[in-house]
Design a protein that fits this description.
7% helix, 329 residues, binds calcium ion, 19 strands
């Protein structure tokens, strides 16, 4: 489960997995009464009384925004914002388009996906895995494919695309890169596979179309990284390990949370990459993103792209801090 506050409406968005066991055997994701496999939208600024919680059949201390898609519908729970998710693993709002809500949804057997989440949208699971029909074992409560109108992913990949030695794949959703630290990456949606050891950058063209082109972006560790990036002999890429999540700070810089540590995307020149925009006017003191948002090389994913990163926190340090905290009296 992950929670987020909507930057435009201030409501709390709660991402719920389908409750587990392979293939959603109880069909929670399409169940109109279960909160599992849904994205919920809650108002926690206006709290109900204890009586109202009982009367309205709420699950906790929140109220339901009146403009939730099913707030007036008896069949569906009023908390729903979207349904038919399997395991939304990292969702984010585009900081430049605060209504643009993107979720990566972890697949079951074959396909990992990225969805643009819209009000009331049904993302198909477990009738579909990505754009493909999924055939769960029949059980009471199954949803016929022709009874739903699924929204298919805007990005995705087959497990076989990343399945190397680990035997599986699991997507880790990220962010639209809106920092000017790497102006050549500006506007791209970054995401990763847990096992993949590298990251994809997807460019949307035209904007707001949901039409993405994606490419892998190899990682390189800057020579002046404050923490020495671990590496595999004979491989120029840092050995980041499992990439489980991303973060964004107030400057819109992007962090990568991996099993080997925490990394930050930095200026390309720190890895000796050339990004013609890095020294342009847009990247100096006065930030004017419009100058970085032209559609020449920003949206051209055919240009080989790289991510220059530094390691800012080693896992051994995280563990050390955790040990210290745990050993305090
Ligand atoms: Ca789906």
């Amino acid at each position: 489960m992950r929670i987020l506050f909507g930057p435009a409406d201030g409501y709390l968005y709660v991402m719920m997995g389908d409750g587990g066991k392979g293939g959603d055997p109880y069909y929670f994701s399409q169940n109109k009464k279960s909160l599992l496999g849904k994205i919920l939208r809650l108002d926690i600024d206006h709290l109900p009384s204890a009586d109202e919680i009982v009367d309205l059949d709420l699950w906790g201390n929140y109220s339901v925004p009146q403009d939730n898609p099913y707030s007036e519908e008896k069949d569906l729970q009023p908390e729903f914002w979207a349904l038919g998710l399997r395991n939304p693993w990292r969702c984010s709002f585009d900081s430049q388009r605060p209504l643009y809500f993107v979720c990566a949804d972890t697949g079951q057997d074959n396909y990992e996906e990225v969805d643009i989440i819209t009000k009331g949208g049904n993302y198909g699971w477990s009738v579909y895995e990505g754009p493909f029909p999924y055939n769960p074992q029949q059980s009471p409560g199954s949803t016929p494919a022709n009874s739903i109108n699924p929204i298919f992913p805007v990005l995705g990949y087959n497990h076989s695309d990343v399945n190397k030695n680990e035997g599986s794949a699991a997507i880790s959703g990220g962010y639209f890169y809106r920092s000017l630290t790497d102006p050549c990456m500006f506007g791209r949606y970054l995401y990763a596979d847990l096992y993949g050891n590298d990251i994809w950058a997807a460019a949307e063209s035209p904007e707001n179309s949901g039409n993405f082109t994606t490419a892998r972006v190899p990682l390189t560790c800057a020579h002046d990284s404050p923490t020495h990036c671990s590496s595999i002999p004979g491989n120029s890429q840092p050995a980041v390990g499992y990439i489980s999540s991303f973060g964004e700070d107030n400057r819109k810089d992007i962090f990568i949370l991996a099993s080997s540590g925490v990394y930050r995307v930095v200026r390309p020149s720190r890895c000796n990459y050339t990004c013609s925009k890095e020294n342009a006017q847009c990247c100096n003191v006065k930030i004017d993103s419009s100058k970085c948002d032209s559609d020449d090389d920003v949206l051209d994913v055919k240009v080989p792209m790289f991510l220059c990163v530094i390691e800012v926190l080693e896992v051994i340090l995280q563990q050390f801090i955790l040990l210290l905290v745990l050993s305090l009296p």
